[in-house]
Amino acid sequence: MTTTTLDKVIGDFGGAVGVLKIDIEGHELQAFSGAQESLESGKIRDIIYEDYGDMDSAVSRLLRSFGYSIFGLDKTLFGLVLRERSKAVQPFEPPNLLATLNPARARQRMARRGYNCLNKRPGLRATVG
Questions:
Q1: Which is the most buried residue in 38, 86, 106, 112, by most CB within 10 A?
Q2: CA distances to 10, 11, 63, 89 from 114, in Å
Q3: Nearest to 71, CA basis, from 38, 95, 35, 52
Q4: What is residue 54's predicted lDDT score, i.e. its pLDDT?
Q5: Residues 6+ apart with CB under 8 A from 48
Q6: What is the 3-state secondary structure (H, E, C) of 57-97?
Q7: What is the CATH number of the domain that holds 17?
Q8: 27-79 pLDDT, tens digit each
Q9: Is residue 80 part of a domain?
């Protein structure tokens, strides 16, 4: 099995990343340790991730150390909404979180509801697989 780092993938991508969605079942901290350069230089604007530790986890603290603001993403009957504070975590479903370098932009864009609202041009995305 070949492994690589997020810094390598983002470097090969050749530019800034608007939205990075990562879901690797509890290994986010290890993945972000391979993204130090990208996080430090602000190459990733928005990161969506799951974390049972919610907004107070080691992953959230690491992202905050690089200047990210952390929000919860809660599903409601009216769509996806931003949450500004930690909440009690349900054991059967990890919280989805948003780390962003531009919290005012995220608040404004999330008012439209849904994950695609973070993209400048919905539908454009790079997939690594």
A1: 38
A2: 25, 28, 22, 21
A3: 95
A4: 79
A5: 19, 20, 21, 22, 73, 96, 97, 98, 115, 118
A6: CHHHHHHHHCCCEEEEEEEECCEEEEECCCCCCCCCCCCEE
A7: 3.40.190
A8: 888 888 888 888 998 999 999 998 887 788 899 999 999 999 999 988 877 77
A9: yes
Q: Which residue has the tokens 């930690």?
A: 86
100, two tokens:
């962003």
Higher per-residue pLDDT: 115 or 53: 53
Domain containing 20 equals 6-118
Letter for the amino acid at 64?
R
pLDDT on residue 118? 57
Domain count, the chain: 1
pLDDT-derived band of residue 129, with 50, 70 and 90 as boundaries?
Answer: very low
Yes or no: say if 18 and 126 are a contact pair by the CB < 8 Å rule: no
